[in-house]
Specification:
Blueprint lengths: L11 E3 L5 E4 L4 E4 L15 H23 L11 E10 L5 E10 L5 H14 L1 H6 L4 E6 L1
Parallel strand pairs: 5-6
Antiparallel strand pairs: 1-2, 2-3, 4-5
């Protein structure tokens, strides 16, 4: 498998889950804090929240790209939304693992057609491709 990046994001984190993360090109500067469930005070962002936001946004883009390439699919409506939930916890094999649940809302698109769009999005989305076979990802279409 080969990838030829056309864009590379660069971020810097210091202090781990209770530290800071910055993205120089945008000026994004986040205070990081572990959630209470992981022993933190929750007074900041955490990697799972950032991953959920990134996956949700990227997945919408993947569905939009899929429908622009396959004219047999309905277009993704402007009111599209994806709720992404990212869970973290211990793995039976040791260490920690993630789970992802995506809830996709495609208003005005029939359920069967929405399911086709969601499946096409998974084939294109780099987050879905990276997680395939490594992380349990469930998708629900509303």
């Amino acid at each position: 498998m080969s990838t030829s990046p056309v864009y590379t994001a660069q971020a810097t984190a210091t202090g781990g889950r209770n530290g800071r993360a910055t993205v120089e090109e945008t000026g994004l500067d986040l205070v990081l804090a572990a959630p209470p469930a992981l022993g933190g005070d929750g007074k900041g962002s955490n990697p799972e929240q950032l991953f959920a936001a990134g996956y949700a946004a990227c997945y919408i883009g993947a569905m939009q790209f899929a429908t622009s390439q396959d004219t047999s699919l309905a277009k993704v409506p402007a009111e599209v939304s994806v709720d992404a939930s990212v869970g973290i916890g211990p793995r039976a094999e040791g260490g920690f693992g993630l789970t992802v649940a995506l809830v996709v809302k495609l208003p005005g698109v029939a359920q069967a057609e929405a399911q086709r769009i969601v499946e096409a999005g998974h084939k294109i989305c780099p987050y879905s491709n990276a997680l395939q076979g490594n992380v349990e990802v469930t998708t629900k279409v509303l």
